[in-house]
Write a sequence for this structure.
């Protein structure tokens, strides 16, 4: 199966296809990258394990596949016996070094004969360490609670935050998304992501990628049906409204458990659009922005003058300008810099230099300064070879344009990024840095995009 | 012309600010008018020995009016003596349909045309102490004897002061009154002339001004001044002119300077300001001023400025 579609209504195509390691009869879902391969959950048989439940209600285990050749995959294997229980295991998430795993599993695994359909055996989050090639030192997550489920953990790339879903009290209904920030060697208290993200239904399967973007699945936000995949981002300590991934990724079936590589160009997600849960791959053609605008500088400094006075020579007159700053500025032409955008009133009084009579008194001129409606790149204009330069993408007064994606181009094509990024130039010369931005969909379902560019001189 | 006339008519009919009937008006800060005897030298400040003024009587004035002249004789210490007083100046009041016409502004030379109209009263004055520094009243005149000019908002009379003989300067002023014995203003009345001939104050601190009215057909004005004797500076104010300096004449010559008129100055009054020389005191300075439009037609000076004294309105711009 080959599905071509436009992600986010862009002209660049995503190619979506089921992975070879997904089977038609078993369920596979929640892929994550691990050591050049994929770790995922599946209820497929592995002869090395004993199952306590046969028939249709098979238990889920954590599997691992690696690339084989240019496009093939090895046969899925259980990731590690050491973290495989007799009940449900997974999904999993790893730290960047790949030596720590967080995964969900049933809390109670002691009684091998108990009824696994017992809903009182809730899911909890557990961690383990890879020591000398063996996963060991399994620890429960600090906030596990036998009365509620804690599952689908997802570590941020830096490992300082863990997202997960839970139905614990205090949420907005169903499964809600939470995060805990790392505090010393443990985790701080769970924080609910709030009503912008969580609904009365279920939000789960988070995936935190670079630049702060958080993908998740929800059957509470408006989508195509069942679980759909969304992403959000915390900007200025507020989560933006979830952005629905378009039709190649989402379908009327359940779509969940997504993972994307660091370039945002390739990834995998889970879907039961073919009846069983399967893992699909997708890839993005390089995104292009055309007709990038040169950034214009906001102007706050002006020269004020009396246009009539300029036309013809006049007698000596004293021009007094009042800009409301408590200082009387004298001169037929005066330069003044306003502090920034806003509404201002300028008053001019003209005194006759000969008779000292007032020729014009407090003649008012009102002006309103606005920033140029544009995207902007805040950075130094000049840098040094091999010295990192920070670039910040900001948006000024572009009403209706709510940024969902940042793409940076340092001369090697547009790459996904965040609002803040740095780059090191290896050679002297002039460089054109481009910033492409995508917005949320407008009322017509089109996602606006804009692009600006800035010249950087490297010495 | 029509628009200009309508504006004048409106202002006159509503009587806005028109409460002074002396010519020169108090706000002009001009002490007196002056006319030299017909034998005088023009270098003394009068190039034609004649001054024509028009007064406007509003329709609301139905009773008799008087045109009063202060110090009509040529003698005493107010007038300008040249040798001995030997000057005769005639004052004539004209009414009737021909006393003013649309072409009046073109009649600036001492010719028979200045006597157009129906002569209502005339009197010549020589060196007569009984009129020295006294008011002499012409009239009574029934306002209906003046020419009704709708565009000017009332009935018009003409008064011509003409130096008949002699070489002295007769210094005088007018008042439009409802009384023969005292100055009782005709509410809503006004004076205008096309050629202003006046005596400046000797006080160096005095700033005098006169007020030509610019109609909507005017795109430029030529300001002519005669015999200024370099007594300081002349400058121009309007809603769009912020005291532009005007070239000044020396002794016994005319100087003309042209200024553009912008849109917002049309149908408004321009102020010509006279600031005396602050370093050297020049006494007994007489000056004549004419303002013409681009067609060479003289613009009227109203002693009470139409629309009020122009206030410069700067156009603030930022770049």
């Amino acid at each position: 199966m080959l599905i071509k579609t436009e992600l986010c209504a862009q002209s660049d195509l995503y190619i979506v296809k089921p992975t070879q390691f997904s089977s038609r009869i078993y369920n596979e879902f929640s892929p994550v990258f691990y050591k050049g391969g994929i770790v995922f959950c599946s209820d497929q048989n592995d002869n090395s394990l004993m199952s306590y439940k046969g028939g249709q209600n098979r238990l889920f285990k954590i599997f691992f596949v690696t690339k084989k050749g240019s496009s093939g995959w090895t046969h899925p294997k259980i990731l590690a016996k050491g973290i495989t229980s007799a009940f449900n295991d997974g999904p999993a998430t790893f730290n960047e070094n790949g030596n720590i795993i967080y995964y969900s599993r049933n809390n109670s695994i002691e009684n091998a004969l108990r009824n696994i359909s017992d809903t009182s055996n809730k899911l909890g989050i557990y961690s383990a360490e890879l020591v000398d090639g063996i996963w060991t030192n399994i620890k429960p997550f600090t906030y596990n609670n036998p009365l509620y489920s804690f599952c689908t953990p997802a570590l941020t790339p830096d490992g300082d935050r863990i997202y997960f879903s839970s139905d614990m009290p205090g949420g907005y209904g169903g499964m809600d998304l939470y995060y805990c920030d790392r505090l010393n060697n443990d985790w701080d208290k769970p924080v609910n992501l709030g009503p912008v993200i969580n609904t009365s239904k279920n939000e789960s399967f988070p995936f935190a990628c670079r630049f702060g973007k958080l993908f998740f699945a929800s059957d509470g936000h408006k989508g195509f049906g069942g679980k759909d995949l969304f992403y959000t981002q915390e900007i200025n300590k507020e989560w933006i409204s979830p952005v629905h991934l378009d039709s190649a990724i989402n379908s009327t079936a359940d779509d969940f458990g997504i993972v994307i590589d660091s370039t945002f160009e390739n990834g995998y997600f889970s879907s039961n659009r073919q009846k069983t849960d399967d893992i699909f791959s997708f890839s993005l053609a390089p995104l292009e922005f055309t007709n990038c605008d040169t950034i214009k500088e906001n102007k706050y400094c002006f020269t004020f003058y009396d246009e009539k006075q300029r036309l013809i020579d006049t007698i000596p007159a004293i021009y007094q300008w009042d800009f409301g700053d408590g200082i009387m500025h004298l001169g037929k032409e005066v330069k003044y810099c306003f502090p920034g955008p806003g509404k201002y009133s300028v008053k001019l009084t003209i005194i006759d230099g000969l008779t000292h009579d007032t020729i014009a008194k407090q003649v008012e001129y009102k002006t309103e300064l606005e920033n140029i409606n544009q995207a902007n790149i805040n950075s130094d204009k000049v840098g040094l070879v091999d010295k990192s330069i920070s670039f910040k993408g900001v948006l000024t007064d572009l009403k209706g344009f709510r940024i969902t994606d940042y793409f940076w181009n340092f001369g090697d094509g547009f790459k996904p990024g965040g609002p803040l990024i740095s780059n090191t130039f290896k050679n002297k010369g002039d460089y054109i840095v481009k910033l492409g931005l995508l917005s949320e969909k407008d009322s017509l379902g089109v996602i606006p995009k804009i692009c600006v560019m800035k010249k950087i001189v490297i010495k | 012309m029509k628009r200009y006339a309508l504006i004048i008519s409106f202002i006159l009919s509503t009587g806005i600010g028109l409460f002074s009937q002396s010519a020169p008006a108090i706000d002009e800060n001009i002490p007196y008018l002056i006319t030299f005897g017909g034998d005088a030298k023009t270098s003394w400040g009068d190039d034609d020995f004649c001054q024509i003024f028009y007064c406007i009587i509003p329709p609301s004035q139905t009773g008799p009016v008087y045109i009063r002249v202060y110090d009509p004789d040529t003698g005493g210490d107010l007038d300008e003596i040249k040798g001995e007083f030997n000057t005769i100046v005639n004052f004539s009041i004209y009414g009737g349909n021909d006393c003013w016409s649309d072409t009046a502004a073109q009649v600036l030379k001492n010719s028979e045309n200045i006597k157009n109209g129906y002569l209502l009263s005339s009197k010549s004055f020589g060196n007569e102490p009984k009129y020295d520094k006294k008011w002499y009243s012409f009239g009574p005149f029934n306002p209906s004897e003046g020419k009704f000019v709708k565009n000017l908002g009332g009935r018009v009379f003409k008064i011509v002061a003409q130096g008949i003989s002699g070489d002295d300067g007769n210094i005088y002023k007018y008042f439009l009154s409802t009384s023969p014995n005292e100055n009782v203003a005709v509410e809503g009345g006004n004076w205008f002339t096309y050629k202003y001939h006046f005596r400046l104050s000797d006080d160096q601190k005095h700033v005098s001004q006169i007020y030509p009215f610019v109609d909507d057909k005017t795109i430029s004005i030529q300001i002519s001044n005669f015999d200024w004797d370099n007594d300081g500076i002349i400058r121009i104010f309007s809603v769009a002119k912020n005291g532009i300096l005007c070239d000044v004449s020396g002794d016994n010559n005319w100087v003309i300077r042209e200024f553009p008129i912008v849109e917002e100055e049309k149908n408004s009054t321009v102020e010509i300001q006279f600031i005396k020389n602050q370093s050297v005191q020049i006494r007994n300075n007489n000056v004549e001023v004419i303002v013409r439009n681009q067609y060479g037609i003289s613009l009227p000076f109203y002693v009470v400025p139409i629309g009020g004294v122009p206030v410069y309105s700067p156009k603030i711009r930022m770049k």
